[in-house]
Amino acid sequence: MSSSPATPSEVYPDRVPTGPAGSDDTLTIGFILTQLWHRVPGGTASSALKLHGALEPRRDVKLIGIGAGGPRTADSVAYMPPPGTKQFRLRYQVLYDTWQRLGQSAPERLIGPVDVIHATTTLVPPVRSAKLVVTVHDMFPYLEPDVLTKRGGRILRQGIDIAKDRADIVCCPSQQTIDDCVDFGFDPDRMRLVPWGATVHDPSPAKIDSTRARLGLERPYLLWLGTIEPRKNLPLLLAAFAQAELDGVDLVLGGPFGWNEDLDDVSRALGERLHRLGFIAPDDLAPLYAGATALVYPSLREGFGMPAAEAMAQGTPVVGSAGTAIAEVVGDSGLLVDPSDLGGWVEALRTAASAGWKERHAAAARARVASFTWEKAAAAQVAAYRAATA
User: Fold this and answer.
1) Range of the domain at 270
2) Is 98 in the same domain as 165?
3) pTM of the full predicted structure?
4) Which among 97, 194, 189, 96 has a CA at the least distance from the CA of 136?
5) What count of other Cβ atoms lies within 10 Å of the Cβ of residue 228?
């Protein structure tokens, strides 16, 4: 295990030299995007789409998106497949079983020969002649199996096993995930660190105000954003917020319901001080981040913690979980608290809600996250493709 996380400038390679489109050094990549068809696409879908968007303009790779069959249940253009994405006829549930239990429906049958198949999650297809690159976002299916559905845990564990045994290169968005993979038996020489990026939007004060008014956020607020599920540790956050007794400050939960989490009893106790917004439209994300006093993120584990990076990019500091991948993003620009320490979270929320705290930490948050860019993520990803094909 590494003793301290590397900074982004230490792990990102320089931009890979590019040549004319279609030149001999252009790699053709089958880019798996089947998670866009999930009921709750979540962070793996968001990160894959943003990585695709950063890779697509490059002239040293050609991407072919690979999707599943059936309707997409996502209710927003936030998860629209890129143009030209090829679709299997099988719905994703059947497709994953076909891939991982039967070893059938290799992507090359759908898209033709390619240099690399990139499984952007641990739902890993079989490959024929291509090299296999797998992104392992986290090791929750083995480390925290109780936070997943029975079926979800099973197929994700199968995918992790396949990645460990068959992947030519394994990419992770955080050093913590790399360490977890190596502890589980992954070959360290095949591991690559590909941290995600964050985008600065700088919404205008008028845009922030209008978004807050439309969402009913009249008072200062602490923000949590993500998919509601057990590993997000929301019962602790709600309990800490209740005990902090913050006068005139609300708590906002944004994001869809995922699974296995019942917050209704605690939510009723907080009354009008708690706002459950559900799915957040893409245009509302930046002003929602920018208008918050702090992002509060007490996850038990994270693969990276993209909401933390996105909040920091808008100048909103973070109160996050110490000892998790969130700490690699936040560094010393915010507050880090043990995710099991209720009293510590009570005090941290009081600090974050205090007058002037955001203003004193906004510049540090922006500076810290400035080195997390999607262009650098794309360069690191292409370097991983090159390593797989070397």
Assistant:
1) 205-369
2) yes
3) 0.87
4) 194
5) 21
